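About this split. The held-out portion is used to measure sequence recovery: a designer receives only the structure tokens and must propose an amino acid at every position. Recovery is the fraction of positions where the proposal matches the reference. Here is one held-out target exactly as it appears in the evaluation file.
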């Protein structure tokens, strides 16, 4: 019988990361303010941290989703007033997206709602373990984002 081609250690590692991702998304979604989806929070948080304006294509790349998926989410956020979408004055074919004050307020409300979840986790994990884990996770993210 042949040995499996995949390293069981790697499979175990990425299975844990995947499961953590699913569980975390589920818990965060349950804590978000009524009507806010995780995709809404992700975009608002992106703009709250980075500021500025982005095109829908840039956002789709950042979130590794299709232009259609990002357009749907942006339209919903625009309808409720959380983002501004305007024409690009230099290139009329493009649009530029930015966060509104209402969007900043909604993002901050969401952060307040999910913060206790992270505080509880950090009490268990501890800052020392978190600080040791972050560089490894960052390296994995960078490796995966560079592979096309």
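Reference sequence for scoring:
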């Amino acid at each position: 019988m042949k040995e499996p081609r995949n390293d069981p250690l790697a499979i175990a590692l990425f299975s844990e990361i995947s499961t953590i991702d699913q569980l975390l998304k589920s818990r965060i979604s349950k804590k978000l303010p009524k009507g806010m989806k995780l995709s809404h929070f992700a975009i608002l948080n992106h703009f709250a941290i980075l500021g500025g304006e982005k095109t829908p294509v840039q956002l789709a790349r950042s979130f590794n989703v299709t232009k259609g998926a990002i357009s749907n989410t942006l339209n919903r956020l625009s309808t409720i007033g959380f983002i501004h979408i305007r024409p690009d004055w230099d290139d009329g074919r493009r649009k530029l997206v930015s966060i509104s004050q209402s969007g900043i307020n909604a993002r901050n409300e969401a952060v307040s709602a999910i913060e206790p979840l992270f505080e509880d986790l950090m009490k268990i994990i501890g800052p020392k373990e978190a600080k040791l884990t972050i560089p490894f996770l960052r390296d994995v993210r960078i490796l995966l984002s560079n592979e096309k």
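Annotator remark: The mean pLDDT is 92.
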